[in-house]
Task: structure prediction
Amino acid sequence: MRLWWQDPFRMFQTNLREIDAGLDVERVLDYLEEFGANTWLLSVGGILSNYPTALDFQTANPYLAERPSRDLVGDAVKAAAARGIRVMGRMDFSKIDHRRAEQHPEWCFVDAAGDPQVYNGLTSVCPSGDYYQVKLFEVLDEVLDRYPIDGFFCNWMSFNEVDYSRRYRGVCQCLGCVRRYSEYAPGERLPGDKNSAGYETWQRFSREILADLTARIREHLANRRPEAPLVLGDRADIVFHEANNAIGRPLWHHRTSEHVSAAKTFRPEVPVLTNSVGFVDMPYRLAGEEPHHFAQYLLQAMARGAVPSTYIMGTPDDNPYACLGIAAELTRFHRDHQDVYRELVPAATTLLIRPDQFKPGAITEFQGLYLSLLQRHVPFDVLPEERLAEVDLGRYRVVVLPDLGPLTPEVVATIDSYVGGGGAVVATGNSGLVADEVQLACLPVRRRLASHDTEEATRSFHLRSGDQFLPVVGAFDLVEPGDGAEVGLLAMSRAPYGPPEKCHGHLELDHPGRLSAPYGRGRATLLPWTVGRAYRDVGLTGHRDAFVDEVARAGGQQVDTELPEQVEIVMGRSAVGTVIHLLNRSGDADQRFAKPLPIGEGWLTLPDGVTTVEALCAGRRLGVEDGRVLVPTIGLFEVLVAHP
Result:
């Protein structure tokens, strides 16, 4: 049975304050319909219940007294159903009031000093305790018994290491955590904070607690109301990603696209909901997001096959953010082309692995390679490293490993099997290299001889690339080539870099910066240096091209086009055929998105067998000539639908 949320939909979230309980339901629904949304994410329960709860551990919103019915949820569900709009329930079980915290200290977060975490009079609870493990289900049952809610989202379901002020509070030390951790890691002490021994083990432990809770909630809802999905982590019915800005956080312009791609690559058939925040940051929730910045949240989400969602504080009347105009335009575009977005899944043939969060240096490498592929028009998907052994790699021609370092046995077996079966791998940095051991049998390396991984060790270090020289930035591993390995990008010996009179003496060495060889029916290439980090930090196109040329040689599909590098090409496949999103990235600027400049028409080569192409933004059919189309001028974006 196909469920409603397995088809495209569009959401609008009103994150209500307690004083909003008297809102005009019909007025909000008028706004949603004009906006293009057909689903309303409404604050239902948890910290405050916007309905008359009978549970003694829940608090009914006192402002419900302003409603004749005393029931906001009931009024909203009834009015929305009359218009064919679905209502999903936003729940927040992360905090309880002082009275419940006093009655049930065993539910609460406890820091290393033995103190609870109290913020604005509310006490944080811990997922290990019975408020999450037991009482949460009683709340869901009460809501389901009363209302035909169309789904649930659980906000801030976490271990609350960081509070609303972004103050680090450490690892929870409640009795539930102590007991569960002793069972998970016998003999190991529960760490106190991120600097404590065993913190990485605790992070895996906490992820498993939350994954188990997610699975239980999902099963509970499926038994009670199968048509009501759970919106949460990457194991839920609908994967949740919040696209947001934050004061003090460096802007990664591709964050939304990256996260959606990671989820859709892992489980292509599972919807991803990108909840795009209409304000700048939680402490500055009255300040609307820059429209061109907000547009990127929705565009990147839609291009990768996600459900667009817009999120505001309060009601549309209270917070008419400037970005809501363009948000409505894009939401209506998705509505008007719903058939194009039905079953939209990734269709790239190159896969870029996103490093584990414990490898911050590798994240920079990943971002440099991400930019390189994007700018050279190589469509690609993203997959988290921890999911590598869970995905069939057979649909990809090339898999890129960005400076991943030590790999798990499962990942090693997966990669070696993939290459042996005919795939290609391009690895950078120290992927699969541990001390002098080479974990991956497919790599054309006998052993690692030494590692230059400090700024001092790589300063003045160059690689020869034809008539050009590329600086090594980050790290370089000296490796012994395996039998039959093709080598290139030979290193130059270091020489003084000052004063100018002494800047000479570089000699070519036999240490390769590139090694490649067949393995089984496939091929593996290693660039034993951080070429991605070099491009991210320095921006030399020589770094970018040295990497992308290897991907192309390995079989990575580069789109032949005269469009400039500022056009991002996202390849997808939906119920209507091949879908190509062309995103105008000319507005990507330092710590912001500016208004993109129009990009003039240019030729683009199509996949084999395409005979007709529709340009949805231009609103016309394009002529196909020798397998190419002339793309119209691109404003914010263009979408091409190609048919055989």
Remarks:
- The first strand starts at residue 11 and ends at 15.
- The CA atoms of residues 184 and 204 lie 10 Å apart.
- The radius of gyration is 27 Å.
- The longest helix spans residues 199-224.
